[in-house]
Amino acid sequence: MRTVPKAVARPSGFLDDRLGAAGFLKRNLRKIFPDHWSFLLGEIALYSFVILLLTGTFLTLWFKPSMTEVVYDGSYAPLKGVMMSEAYASSLEISFDVRGGLLIRQMHHWAALLFVAGMMVHALRVFFTGAYRKPREINWLIGVALLTLALFEGLTGYSLPDDLLSGAGLRVTEGVVISLPLVGTYIRFFLFGGEYPGDEVISRFYSIHILLIPGIILALVTAHLVLMWVQKHTQMPGKGRTNRNVVGAPFYPAFMAKSGAYFLFTLGTVAGLATFAQINPIWLYGPYTPADVSAGSQPDFYLAFLEGALRIMPPWEINVLGFTLPLSVIIPALVPLGIIVVGMAAYPFAERWITGDHREHHIADRPRNNPHRTAIGMSAVAFYGVLWLFGANDELSTTFHISLNATTYAGRVLVIAAPVLAYVLTYRICLGLQRSDAALVAHGVETGVIKRLPHGEFVEVHAPLSEESEAHLRGKEPVPMLPAGANGSGVLPERLRGPLGGLRGRMSRAYGGEKVPLANGHAPGTLGNGHVPKKQGVLPPH
């Protein structure tokens, strides 16, 4: 009989006697987690955030968040004797004089990009699979808040070195802030402490960057994980998987080992990028001065869509009650981000209102099985992608020798046309994939074996699907929609009467329902051309 070593038993007994943690640990260490590659996308963001906290702590030991002017006397010879802020001088010191400083600074920057990218991809996975539905609406809202905060966290961190590139971005930020009606001047005073550029913005951004936003993000990440743990993880459809169970591996040791390895892989990737791929070489840009701007300056990718909106927006402005509203700045600053963030936050509730579906969902959808939702998501991706691309319209014009005006006008057309085209194409692709699934369920998998029928026709023999594959395909459910009438009488429910109710009913009929039933492929047992095979013409399942 195996006995627990005293080195383990005594501390464990000590803690259990005082905290009663044995039952809690035993119960939760055996919690089952489903196994699917897409579920690891959110962990990229989580582990990147951990790397950000570790590298950021290192950087705070040497960074000086001050705009006081000093004469540079460090290791980088081209800038010796140049007047610059203490923030920029300390950033140069970290890069050239602190052992490992440049590696850590670049790891911090790469981890920031991976953090935002990981959250974006994770949000797309949750959206396309419908994992935001009841009971996970609150967790979805927390995720939307995390993504929004990450954008502002990136903005404040990007500005801290006080180099010419980040200063140009900060100048754009100041222009956007001051254009906001009523509150713009107050926000500018809060951030800059007076007229731009002032001498307070770096220290204020520093406090926001290392204390305020990270603290909120840490609290929201904790709440996000706790809710996920309590509500259990969604799982993909498959054999033996229902809304009442979870099929997978236990948290300890399987999921813990996998997550530990994945963290090390993420850390190694960030370290490799920081070692071999230079990012943000601030010494090449020089210190920020309000009179200068670097040519071809671009923000990090997660803010490029706002830059693109500013560049392709027509120069509109209106005068109201003696006040000038620069729509060419207000609209790009508020509308694109508002469409994406508000749309993401409202979608679970809008979908529930349209479909009338109040059930709990623990089985994730395959994106093809809800074509309207998938098409809407791809429209948002196309909208974001066009704005992101034209945030570099000057670089596009220079590289491909195209008129800058031509790229600007193209952006104005594509920002409307691309989402519409993406919607139509995605919807048709989803229906095509559903038809392919129906054909697989109906007559199996093509084998490449050609058989001649008694009357001379040549056909291909199909093999039945494996049980797991067939269960995966048959996990499809019709998209819920509102009933057409009460008890089959044809009388509309009260909630569907009136103009708003009529609109809701039409939207529900368009959005919901079964677009391509699985039985619409070929009749079961056929060879794919309507002919029923002989018994010897069908291959046995593998």
UniProtKB/TrEMBL annotation:
<keyword id="KW-0812">Transmembrane</keyword>
<feature type="transmembrane region" description="Helical">
    <location>
        <begin position="37"/>
        <end position="63"/>
    </location>
</feature>
<feature type="transmembrane region" description="Helical">
    <location>
        <begin position="261"/>
        <end position="279"/>
    </location>
</feature>
<feature type="region of interest" description="Disordered">
    <location>
        <begin position="514"/>
        <end position="542"/>
    </location>
</feature>
<feature type="transmembrane region" description="Helical">
    <location>
        <begin position="206"/>
        <end position="230"/>
    </location>
</feature>
<dbReference type="InterPro" id="IPR016174">
    <property type="entry name" value="Di-haem_cyt_TM"/>
</dbReference>
<feature type="transmembrane region" description="Helical">
    <location>
        <begin position="371"/>
        <end position="390"/>
    </location>
</feature>
<feature type="domain" description="Cytochrome b/b6 N-terminal region profile">
    <location>
        <begin position="11"/>
        <end position="237"/>
    </location>
</feature>
<protein>
    <recommendedName>
        <fullName>Cytochrome bc1 complex cytochrome b subunit</fullName>
        <ecNumber>7.1.1.8</ecNumber>
    </recommendedName>
</protein>
<feature type="transmembrane region" description="Helical">
    <location>
        <begin position="410"/>
        <end position="430"/>
    </location>
</feature>
<feature type="transmembrane region" description="Helical">
    <location>
        <begin position="107"/>
        <end position="128"/>
    </location>
</feature>
<dbReference type="InterPro" id="IPR027387">
    <property type="entry name" value="Cytb/b6-like_sf"/>
</dbReference>
<dbReference type="InterPro" id="IPR005797">
    <property type="entry name" value="Cyt_b/b6_N"/>
</dbReference>
<dbReference type="Pfam" id="PF13631">
    <property type="entry name" value="Cytochrom_B_N_2"/>
</dbReference>
<feature type="transmembrane region" description="Helical">
    <location>
        <begin position="140"/>
        <end position="160"/>
    </location>
</feature>
<keyword id="KW-0472">Membrane</keyword>
<feature type="transmembrane region" description="Helical">
    <location>
        <begin position="323"/>
        <end position="350"/>
    </location>
</feature>
<keyword id="KW-1133">Transmembrane helix</keyword>
